[in-house]
Automatic annotation (TrEMBL), chain A:
Assigned keywords, A-Z: Kinase, Membrane, Transferase, Transmembrane, Transmembrane helix
Domain Sensor histidine kinase NatK-like C-terminal: 319-420
InterPro entries, sorted: HATPase_C_sf (IPR036890), NatK-like_C (IPR032834)
Highest taxon listed in the record's lineage: Bacteria
Regions crossing the membrane: 52-69, 76-100, 106-124, 144-160, 172-191
Pfam families: HATPase_c_5
Gene Ontology molecular functions: identical protein binding; kinase activity
Descriptive protein name: Histidine protein kinase
TrEMBL record, chain B:
Membrane-spanning residues: none
Pfam families assigned: LytTR (PF04397), Response_reg (PF00072)
PROSITE patterns found in the cross-reference section: HTH_LYTTR (PS50930), RESPONSE_REGULATORY (PS50110)
UniProt keyword terms in alphabetical order: Activator, Cytoplasm, Phosphoprotein, Two-component regulatory system
SUPFAM superfamilies: CheY-like
UniProt function note: Required for high-level post-exponential phase expression of a series of secreted proteins.
Protein name (Swiss-Prot/TrEMBL): Response regulator
SMART domains from the UniProt entry: LytTR (SM00850), REC (SM00448)
GO molecular function: DNA binding; phosphorelay response regulator activity
Location of the HTH LytTR-type domain: 154-245
Higher taxonomy: Bacteria, Bacillati, Bacillota, Bacilli, Lactobacillales
Residue intervals of the Response regulatory domain: 3-127
Positions of post-translational 4-aspartylphosphate modification: D61
Length: 427, 249
């Protein structure tokens, strides 16, 4: 009877711990399976050899996890984790019992200790979750193998050293130490791997940033060279003018003006660098997204421009959200203009004392789709899975109180405007 | 009477612009007069403070060599004199097209880089300005005023389909025939502002004139652009009555 109770509680704690690790406390069909199969089978096999019992429970619990998560890798790793915790608890109870030499009922110690372990597990899991680790960081192939190996090792260890030789204190302490060591080693490996991955992630992020910056610098240099050429021309023009004036050669001057000066000035006009106002954006990430998107649009033959009259350093809003929103708007504009014959994207930022306005305006192919249709989730002229942009945009706007969105569709162009309130609420 | 103002820091260009304007005014018999031509933007603002200017047409350079540039000057003029017509006279390198169009809502811009065109563009601007002021006086179209930031926006009531309260408090989304935008207000406030607006749902106000059909079973209103909005039971009944009255009337 005591044995059965012990098994039931062990199994219950196993399920509870699994749910904590998965952070999903809803009751599922898998739990029904757990109650209907795992528990009775475990209880049934408790009458058999203890070695068989350990093996059966292990396999059944892994099956339960696979049904719950539908992922073999995760099941093995979580199963191992929770199993190690249980075995450690179990060993602790045995050690305490044997050391104090009083035969307290197993359950009286097991339940509080298990609760304590579960609490620690819960706190650790919450802490890890707060760090918002990416899913891909969590498991690697090696870790799954390691986990599976550990599981088999522990199972074997316990069967051969404890159940086959009776529960001797020495064996239990040895096993406990070995288990602790294995746990510590595994945890260390896991965390060092995560640190490595995070470092790599930051590195690639920086690399792309540098690449983008380099592109910007190259463009700037090109522009600067043009300017130098112009300054050279300008100096020559001044010298010649000087010469004509000195000799009072007005008719020659007239000819020179129409033949030399006018063409130069019209060339300068044409070559106005369309993105030079980007230097007025004081937020690097925003500058970067404008430059890269507009530059790529320019590369596929779309006419682009950016304008800003004043330098703006503070956008008074979460930079990441703003960059995301602008990115979505620009992506839409690029997608629409790509393939248009004389496609154009005009962008600009303007500010007053109360607000900053970001405008993106792009030419439009003829269509009859109204704005509300474009904004509904999943809509796209390009087929499924493409149109989530505008819907996401709404979400971003809604989570920032001071952002406002305007979407207008005129005959020949599409206009998106983000207004950022910066002054006091004018009520 | 439409008052004309010129602000240009280059003396030569200023006399040129003024002469184009006055010669054209002499030729055509418009009810217009040049009130002030100056290189100091502050002078224009002072004049507006002291005198009553009902209708104004402004020709402004952008780079004025003072701490106030033409765009800021235009914004200041607009604040007090909403219906002012503003024309920028500028060089290509100073062009900020979107700012002209969407921040200032300028009537036009004239590029100095094409000297032969300046006169033509100035006269064209005068003609457009004159026509627009006349149209404003005679038209019967009703407008709804929306204040966003320090910007007063006029929207044709016939363009408004409905208002929807945003998930964010104090924000309202207005849906127009050709788009939508957000502004700070509440559904409660808008409801009282025009009798053509009807509160059909806790968070919707519909423009009765732009409903295409009402489905009493699903309690959905279909707007003239086919967008569907929900309606409450009670509102649905009242709406049907309202619309029927509207038809019989």
């Amino acid at each position: 009877m005591v044995n059965v109770m012990m098994l039931v509680f062990q199994e219950l704690f196993f399920a509870l711990n699994c749910k904590i690790v998965l952070n999903d406390f809803r009751i599922k069909y898998a739990d029904l399976f757990f109650v209907l199969f795992n528990m009775p089978l475990a209880i049934f096999s408790s009458n058999l050899n203890q070695s068989v019992l350990v093996g059966t429970i292990l396999i059944l619990n892994i099956i339960y996890l696979i049904i719950l998560t539908r992922n073999i890798k995760i099941s093995i790793v979580i199963g191992t984790m929770v199993y190690i915790i249980e075995v450690i608890t179990d060993h602790l109870v045995d050690i305490i019992n044997l050391l104090i030499q009083k035969n307290l009922p197993y359950l009286i110690e097991f339940i509080p200790l298990s609760f304590f372990m579960t609490l620690i597990l819960y706190l650790v899991c919450r802490k890890i979750r707060e760090k918002r680790l990416n899913k891909q960081f969590l498991l690697s192939k090696n870790e799954v193998f390691l986990a599976a190996g550990t599981l088999i090792l522990i199972g074997g260890l316990i069967i051969f050293t404890e159940t086959m030789q009776g529960n001797k204190l020495n064996n239990i302490i040895y096993n406990f130490v070995i288990l602790l060591l294995i746990t510590i080693i595994l945890i260390t490996i896991h965390f060092s791997r995560i640190r490595e991955l995070r470092k790599q992630f930051l590195l690639t992020k920086k690399e792309t940033q540098i690449k983008n910056d380099n592109r910007y610098i190259n463009e700037m240099e090109k522009h600067y060279n043009e300017l130098r050429k112009f300054r050279h021309d300008y100096q020559n023009i001044l010298l010649s003018l000087d010469e004509y004036l000195k000799t009072d050669d007005i008719s020659g001057l007239k000819v020179y003006y129409s033949e030399a000066i006018k063409p130069v000035s019209s060339r300068v006009l044409r070559q106005k660098y369309k993105l030079e106002d980007l230097s007025k954006i004081g937020v690097k990430e925003l500058k970067s997204i404008f430059f890269n998107k507009l530059y790529s649009a320019q590369m596929i033959g779309t006419e682009v421009s950016f304008e800003s009259k004043n330098k703006i350093d503070d956008f008074c809003v979460d930079t990441l959200d703003l960059v995301l929103a602008v990115g979505i708007i620009l992506d839409n504009a690029i997608e629409e203009t790509n393939g248009q014959k004389n496609g154009s994207i005009q962008t600009g930022i303007m500010n007053t004392a109360l607000e900053i306005t970001i405008i993106v305006k792009n030419s439009l192919r003829n269509n009859d789709i109204s704005v509300w249709k474009m904004k509904s989730a999943g809509f796209s002229t390009k087929g499924a899975n493409r149109g989530l942009g505008l819907n996401n945009l709404t979400e971003i706007i809604n989570r920032n109180d001071n952002l406002m969105l305007e979407t207008m569709k005129m005959d020949e162009y599409f206009l998106q405007k983000i207004t950022i309130g910066i002054g006091e609420d004018e009520e | 009477m439409i008052d004309i103002f010129v602000c240009e820091d280059n003396a030569k260009q200023m006399t040129e612009i003024v002469s184009y304007i006055s010669s054209y005014l002499l030729m055509e018999n418009f009810d217009m007069e040049i009130k002030l031509a100056t290189n100091d933007p502050q002078e224009i603002l002072d004049y507006l403070d002291k005198n009553n200017v009902n209708k104004g047409l402004y020709f402004l350079d952008i780079d004025l060599k003072t701490d106030l540039n033409g765009i800021e000057l235009a914004a200041k003029i607009r604040q007090e004199h909403f219906n002012s017509k503003i024309v920028f006279v500028t060089t290509h390198s100073e062009m900020v097209f979107l700012t002209f169009k969407y921040q200032i809502e300028a009537l036009d811009y004239i590029l100095k880089d094409f000297p032969n065109e300046i006169q033509k563009r100035i006269t064209a601007a005068i003609v457009t300005c004159n026509r627009q002021f006349k149209e404003n006086e005679s038209q019967s179209e009703e407008y709804y005023q929306i204040k966003t930031g320090n910007h007063l926006r006029l929207v044709k009531i016939s363009d408004i389909l409905f208002f929807e309260s945003s998930p964010v408090p104090h924000k309202v989304i207005v849906h127009l025939i050709n788009g939508q935008f957000e502004f700070y207000s509440t559904v409660k406030k808008i409801e009282t502002e025009n009798k053509i607006f009807f509160r059909c749902h806790k968070s919707y106000i519909v423009n009765i004139d732009n409903i295409r059909s009402i489905n009493r079973h699903t309690r959905e209103l279909t707007m003239i652009d086919e967008e569907k909005i929900p309606s409450s039971v009670l509102a649905c009944r009242t709406l049907v009555k309202l619309v029927q009255e509207g038809i019989s009337r």
